[in-house]
Amino acid sequence: MPKFAFFVLLVLVSDLVSGATQVLAEQPNVLWIVTDDQRYDSVQEFNRILHDRDHSALGHVESPNVDRLAKMGTTFINTYCQAPGCAPSRASMHYGRYPFRSGVYEFEYHNNTVEHCRPTLPEEMAAIGYQTVQIGKLGVRIKTLNRNGKPVKHPIYQTEISSKFLAKQGLSDRGKDWFFELDGEKLETPLKSVEYFITPDGEFEMTSPQIEVFEKYKGQSKRIDEKYDLLRHYNKKKPGLPGAGIAITGVSSRKAGKTRDGYYASVFGDFLESADQPLQIGSESFTGVDTSKPLFCHIGFDFPHTPVNPPKSFRDRFQQFDYKIPEFDEAELKTMARQMKKQVTSGYSDHLTDEEKQKMTQDYYAFCAYGDSLVGQSVDSFVQYSEKHNQPWMVVYVCGDHGWKLNEHGSISKFSPWDVDCHNPIIVVSSDKQIFPSGKVVTDFTEFVDIAPTILAAGGAELDNEKFQHLDGQNLAKVVSGEAPVRDYVIGECHAVTGPRAYIRTKDYVFSCQTRPDKRRGRNLQWAMEAKYEEIDPALYQTGTDPGEVNNLAFNEDHKQTALVLKDKLLSIVLGDDRVEVDWGSKGGGTEIFRSNNSPDADDKKLDLSN
Question: Where does 5-149 show beta strands of DSSP type E?
Answer without folding.
Answer: 29-34, 74-76, 79-80, 110-111, 131-136, 142-145
